[in-house]
Amino acid sequence: MNKKLISFFLFLSFLNIYYLSSFSKISFGDGIGFLLDVEKELFTNQVTPLSHFLYLNTAVFLTKYCGVDSIMTMRLASVVPAALSIAFLYIIIKELIAENWIAITCSIVFGLGFTFWRSASTIEVYTFNAIWIIFFLIYSLKSLKKPSLINLLLTGFFLGVSMWVHIQNIMLIPAYFVILYQLRNSKKNIFISVSIFTLIFCTMFLVNHLAYIPVKYTFLTGTGTWIEDTFRQGFSELLKDVIKSFLFLLYNFNIFLIFLPYGIREIYINHKNIFPFIVASFVFTFGFATFYAVSDNYVFFIPSYIIIIILIGYGIKFLSAKYKLKKLQLITFLIPLFYIGCYKIASNVDATKTFRQEKAYKGGLSYYMLPWLHNNLGCIEFTLKKRTSIDNVEELRRQSLEFVKLREKYQNREEVIKL
Predict the structure, then answer these.
(1) φ/ψ of residue 293, rounded to 5
(2) At 356, is the pLDDT very low, low, confident or very high (cuts 50, 70, 90)?
(3) CA 247 to CA 253: how far, in whole Å?
(4) Could you tell me the CA-to-CA distances from 298 to 91, 106, 245, 301 in Å, in that order?
(5) Percent share of the chain, pLDDT over 70
(6) Taking a C-beta distance cutoff of 8 angstroms, is the pair 114, 324 a contact?
(7) How far apart are CA 300 and CA 320, in angstroms?
(8) Three-state secondary structure along the chain?
(9) Considering only CA atoms, which of 31, 10, 158 is closest in space to residue 82?
(10) More reliable by pLDDT, 415 or 196
């Protein structure tokens, strides 16, 4: 089957999966803050770690000028980039590995991975961010294969633009430097690429300056102590971070992790031209996500997971020369059953009883162990019915009540409570 046709089929398939599994009610988390700004049709003029300039302003534009309902806008802002990411991920792996079945298998594994699927099911920036990272990876790898002006220019362009979505992407700058070093003989092309990247990157500081935002807040939030907490961690906390990151890996890739070391070996031995770039892309993004001291750090692993699935693809290719592995394609369709099985087991373990009770307002273990949010409990209903929680949810309540006030201008209370 034609590569473009397969890519389009993957896009349509995951568009349906993500849309059908998307939140039924406005979910818990940071999403209500984004939704509130979109409902207000309020563009942001700040480029900070919490503003997500390109993500938020794209959503506001769709609502304000295209007449799309704010909730639908935010749903599509997660679902569509997620489905596109799977389609373009297939193209990357197909270009690198050639075997169609491996590229399809790896794309499905990544697409059904808990972290990415959950991000596609809720209101969050991370799938919108992933598509820009994938574009950066596509043209980075193209540049290593064919260091043309257009490939290098687009490498710098997409890396620069990605910073306007999420500042976490500064962790990809070392990988960009690796490319520049490896292609150091193409001086003119490198100069143009670096100029484009520098212009886009430095414009963030100019935008903040015009908004009277200190330069440091391009990288710092000013509202939390996450960076300070990260550097204050002791050995035991760091060890817990490492263990937790491994458990996240296991939950996202399950038995496919077996192929990871073989993939690393394959690239190191037979693809030395891309090995340094792959290492730099992975180490800094994975390291940041592992040690960043926030409670929901699992979402920060997505950039490194893109690299991991590429490595898994290489591992499958290496072992497929010795073993018949095409049946792995069938295993991918069992991934949802893996989540359900883990959830059922955890639900019957006494050790989780207290946790289930404390998090019942969100849906208990299902909220944390099942990636889909169809028929979920919503934060609007939680707020209006004045339900209690041991967690600090005052900001969520405030934003929810403000959103309700705006919605009640054209919807009655019974309709709003169902949102």
Answers:
(1) -85, 70
(2) confident
(3) 10
(4) 26, 20, 8, 6
(5) 96
(6) no
(7) 31
(8) CCHHHHHHHHHHHHHHHHHHHCCCCCCCCCHHHHHHHHHCCCCCCCCCCCCCHHHHHHHHHHHHHHCCCHHHHHHHHHHHHHHHHHHHHHHHHHHHHCCHHHHHHHHHHHHCCHHHHHHHHCCCCHHHHHHHHHHHHHHHHHHHHCCCHHHHHHHHHHHHHHHCCCHHHHHHHHHHHHHHHHCCCCHHHHHHHHHHHHHHHHHHHHHHHHCCCCHHHHCCCCCCCHHHHHHHCCHHHHHHHHHHHHHHHHHHHHHHHHHHHHHHHHHHHHCCCCHHHHHHHHHHHHHHHHHCCCCCHHHHHHHHHHHHHHHHHHHHHHHHCCCCCCCHHHHHCCHHHHHHHHHHHHHCCHHHHHHHHHCCCCCCHHHHHCCCCCCCCCHHHHHHCCCCCCCCCHHHHHHHHHHHHHHCCCCCHHHHCCC
(9) 10
(10) 196
DSSP 26: P
Which amino acid, residue 354? T
CA distance 31 to 29: 6
pLDDT surpassing 60 at residue 147: yes
Q: Which amino acid is at 275?
A: F
User: H/E element holding 15?
Assistant: helix 3-21
Q: Answer yes or no: is pLDDT of 229 > 70.
A: no
pLDDT surpasses 90 at 54: yes
CA-to-CA distance for 219 and 241, rounded, in angstroms? 23
* HSE toward the beta carbon, residue 405, CA cutoff 13 A: 8
Residue-wise pLDDT for 124-143, tens only, equals 999 999 999 999 999 999 99
